[in-house]
Design brief:
This protein is an alpha+beta fold and 156 residues long. It has a single domain, classed as Glutaredoxin (3-Layer(aba) Sandwich), CATH 3.40.30. 29% of the residues lie in helices and 28% in strands. It is built from 5 helices and 9 strands; from the N terminus they run βββααβαβαββββα. The strands form 2 sheets. A 7-stranded mixed β-sheet has the order 2-1-5-4-3-8-9. A two-stranded antiparallel sheet has the order 6-7. Strand 1 and strand 2 form a beta hairpin. The chain is globular, with a radius of gyration of 14 Å.
Length: 156
Amino acid sequence: MSVELTEGMKAPGFALANDQGGEVTLESLRGKPVVLYFYPMDDTPGCTKEACAFKDRGAEFRALGAVILGVSKDPLESHAKFRTKYGLDFPLLSDTSGKVLEAYGVWKEKSIFGRTALGVVRSTFLIDREGVIRKAWRKVKVGGHDDEILAALRAL
């Protein structure tokens, strides 16, 4: 069982493939605030709404120096289709092994239509320029979540 990450803790490092053929590491983003969001599945209603909210407010995030990264277990091919279909302007990272999902404590047992199964609990972490978690949102409700993140970014 993983440790529950809380504000003030160092964010677990990672190196994940992105849908554009490269690799993203948390270490390479040092010096920039990072909005690291975990979502269940590409091209589903809630995940699409969340991703499009980040895209639609992208200029505001960029003005604050923030990097947005979406992470799910979906393969890179699925990410590429999802990103292209909705014109997403930030990388989607593939964690098919689930190691990063587990490190951030977002791979959990969930109840879906009365059945329990392991899955991604929609969560977002705001990581500061030094790699420290400044805010953690778990069991995210998509509506208004972008406003919450922007407010927390402005407070950094």
